[in-house]
Amino acid sequence: MLKPLLIAGFTLLVSHSGFAQIDTKATKETKALYRNLGELSKKYILFGHQAATEYGHGWSGDENRSDVKSVTGSHPAIIGADFSGLSGHPKDQIEKNAESLRKNVVDTYNRGGVTTMAWHFNNPASAGGFYWKDSVSAKAIALIKPGGSHHEKYKEILKTIADFAHSVKGKDGTLAPMIFRPYHELDGDWFWWGKGHCSREDLIEVWQFTVSYLRDELGVHNFIYAFSPDCKFTTEQEYLERYPGDKWVDLVGFDDYADFGRDGKYNLKAGVQKLKIVSDYAKKANKLAAFTESGLESIPDKNWWTESLLKSLKAEKVNLAYVLVWRNDSKSPTHFYAPFPGQVSVPDFMTFYNDPYTLFEKDLKSIYR
């Protein structure tokens, strides 16, 4: 079912939008996406799924497939991807990773969907991957900041990301905009950039350098920069503890599995309060807001979509550009966050899909204009 989405006079609305982007040289399409997401967030929310078109429950690499599309007839409006494959691997592997990632981003853009890029960044100063491993991982944030021992190496890694950003041209010859979400869940300790492994000042310096180098030195103008800690806050002040400043962020969000049923524990009231804190800050600062990651692994609660997620999204007058649930592993029988044909939550997900508030890829009309 294709929901009627009325955007009559939408261009006029957009031209008066108060949403301020941090890149004044952003491409026309990136500016349009930013403003359109802001306007849409006043009445709707886009649904997203990590790695939706790359693989799903029991499959991988099929053309134009997603588990969400198999259930609803439409891909998610937001497709999550990751820059993880662009560093920490042999050069030929990085090139191969970039090629498949490029196809994913360009295909999404050509269909009229939106890509958000996470960065599970392998530690550039030690072994251990992107997770923190005691006695293995280096406290690399202090090493990659300007003047640090690994700063030049970090610049080379950012050049690889910039080269990728310059390469994602759609069939109309324009660059695909991407929502770039570096250093996510920075208030936890599980990643090497987490709170226990670097100072607030060093993290902020690295964030500001990252944006400045990509935008001002390497000429990347198709990124929307997203800040997304985990859910370890109960006040605006706590939320902003490691915030790099309004001049360095386009979109504020957060990741929250803990309040939405992880390990059978629900605290929807706390989750709603956090959604409100982030949405309220975005309104005040003229930023976009989003629920950057959530979900319930294996979705054992057959009414989770409407009773937990949708009710929480509608509980307060929040303006959120999108909500993204995590990936469906291709091999694990239990690691999935979106339904697939036959999964117990499919009927409820269809109710979620058909709700006028939720938008999927088929509902998007000219989001880049």
Automatic annotation (TrEMBL):
Residue ranges of every copy of the GH26 domain listed in the record: 28-362
Compartments (UniProt record): Secreted
Annotated positions for site Plays an important role in maintaining the position of the catalytic nucleophile: 184
Catalytic site: 185, 293
GO biological process: substituted mannan metabolic process
InterPro entries in the record: GH (IPR017853), GH26_dom (IPR022790), Glyco_hydro_26 (IPR000805), MANB/E (IPR016714)
Signal sequence annotation: 1-20
Cellular compartments per GO CC: extracellular region
Keyword Secreted assigned: yes
GO molecular function: mannan endo-1,4-beta-mannosidase activity
Residues noted as binding substrate in the record, renumbered to the chain: 120, 190, 257
Top-level taxon of origin: Bacteria
Catalytic activity: Random hydrolysis of (1->4)-beta-D-mannosidic linkages in mannans, galactomannans and glucomannans
Enzyme Commission no: 3.2.1.78
Key words, A-Z: Carbohydrate metabolism, Glycosidase, Hydrolase, Secreted, Signal
Protein name: Mannan endo-1,4-beta-mannosidase
Protein family membership: Belongs to the glycosyl hydrolase 26 family.
